[in-house]
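Please check the following for our workbook:

***
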Amino acid sequence: MALSDSQLHNWLIRPLRRFAVNSLVVWPMLGLYLFINRHQPASPSTVLMPTWVPFWPMFFVPYVGLLLITWLLPAAIRDARLFRACLRANICAWLLVMPWWILTPTTMARPPLPENPWTESFGWLWTCDQPYNLFPCAHGIGPVVAAWFAGRDHPTWRWPLATILVLGLPSIALVWQHRPIDILFGMVATIIGIALAEVLSRREQVSLKTLDELAA
């Protein structure tokens, strides 16, 4: 059965547009992160992972999965106002953490890789991502922001998305990419970004409502 124009727009065209726009936001962020990561000062401050945090290579999968949530989940947001708020929150939170990688550069020694199936995957990850830009952690910003606004748009998704985050966010520390304190400060920036985006979104909604009333 052929799709109607409305169904085609809702199921294909709109998600593809959201995906393209979100890609234009997240990929430059990643590019600038890697640029800063590879242009460090001669002696960044060395930090240590707390002794109570284990190194569990099998958490490589959820760690990478968080990146995919950042990239793909916003495409599922149907409401244009919430999608714009998602982009604003992500950009705001990222801009709050990014300057610290330059102002207070940090590095951390990585553990030896065990001889197991994850060795090759970690070799690829650690080749791409040098052990810098630790504080604050930006890795959790995108997934939390995307889950927040996708959950606002799809209320039935809220608990599944919350469960995914609860299980996925610890992987950032368990693969020794960031310390728990780095993740915590990244979450503070995330909350600020979401709060600011929500305020701007509500103001936008009020402005549009006022314009509609004036035009009526």
Remarks:
- The beta strands are 45-47, 106-108.
- The helical segments are 5-37, 60-72, 80-103, 119-128, 141-153, 158-168, 171-174, 180-215.
- The chain has eight helices and two strands.
- The longest strand covers residues 45-47.
